[in-house]
């Protein structure tokens, strides 16, 4: 059975309408993508400092060497520094850690270690020379 001219006309109109709809859907999608791209910034285009602020770094105890001074745990990340501190006597190590990490004054350290203020300074100076 052969389609009539009317059926062919209807079919052509339908196909034409369908093509128009598909073309407009594609155009709308492309416009939407362009609008979205205007507001987006690629990670590779961001400054490094911004990316670092977005990053989350895992923190494990095994990444540090921990020294307990005055009831506070002081975490040393640098392996060379930690090794150098281990080679010092306990008093000299505590002296350095209290001064540089706990930000204690020579007077406060002297009271804790029961030595003179000048002794604290001298111990710290000698310890730094040895390391």
TrEMBL record:
> Origin, by domain of life?
Bacteria
Question: Which residue range or ranges hold the RNA polymerase sigma factor 70 region 4 type domain?
Answer: 79-130
Pfam families, A to Z: Sigma70_r4_2 (PF08281)
| Name by which UniProt lists this protein | Sigma-70 family RNA polymerase sigma factor
The taxonomy runs: Bacteria, Bacillati, Bacillota, Clostridia, Lachnospirales
